[in-house]
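User: Teach me something about this protein's shape.
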Amino acid sequence: MVEMFEGRRLVVATKHKKEDILAPLLEKELCVICFVQTQFDSDLFGTFSGEMERKEDPLTTAILKCEMAMNMSGCDLGIASEGSFGSHPHLPFIPADEEILVIRDKTNEATFLWKELSLETNFAGAKISNVDELIHFANKVKFPSHALIIKKSTYRIDEMTKGIMDWDLLLSTFSYLIQFEGSVFVETDMRSMYNPNRQKVIKVAAEKLIHNIKTVCPHCHFPGFSIVESKEGLPCKRCGFSTASTLSYLYKCQKCSKTEEQLYPNGKVEEDPAFCDWCNP
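Assistant: First, the predicted structure itself:
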């Protein structure tokens, strides 16, 4: 069903160079023609550095970005992404990056999306009081290949400097701001063009989204035959009781609404007793 996209123009809703990551993949795999709407401003939907608070949840925000770029460009096909950074939902003291990618197709009244959760992030911030602390923090978060933001304090956005990727600029900005309150707040710049780690996660999300699009419904052959539910219950190899491990995935077509259950999606028909609550309580 790549033919459904072949030769069509697709607007990439970004102002942070995400087209450099997405366009090569989309053009190769879906045969679309990618472009950017230069007047599109994704900062209207929220910024990582605090100037604009995100008003909607990440998925809604990605969809709204996509719709705005499509409306501005008069294009019926678009893609947008939205990133969120914070503690991993199951590993509360470890930072994580969740990237949501959405493709909207107005002509076929379809939405394709993928969520990618990754531990591959340098997301961090710290109150810094001296040059030694600054250098230690910068080295820890992969500076200067990954940019930094400096501001007077955590919630102060006046005289904030973003996109710092140079030691001289980092040190001179620190020397200027430290005089006001005796400390500054330094954080990673999570905008995609300034963060190679994030670029990698977006690329993985795009590859998986494309794979999902190429998975067609076995009934009507519409693309994007997607997992809508994961069912637990893989039996324990020793006692046979159900475990919390995945037994099956339920797929559903957004076009004809047909569903299909795929058993043993991880290639295992039984679970190791080490993961059984009965054998290993």
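Now, about its shape. The chain has a mean pLDDT of 95. The first strand starts at residue 9 and ends at 13. If you'd like, I can walk through any region in more detail.
User: That's plenty for now, thanks!
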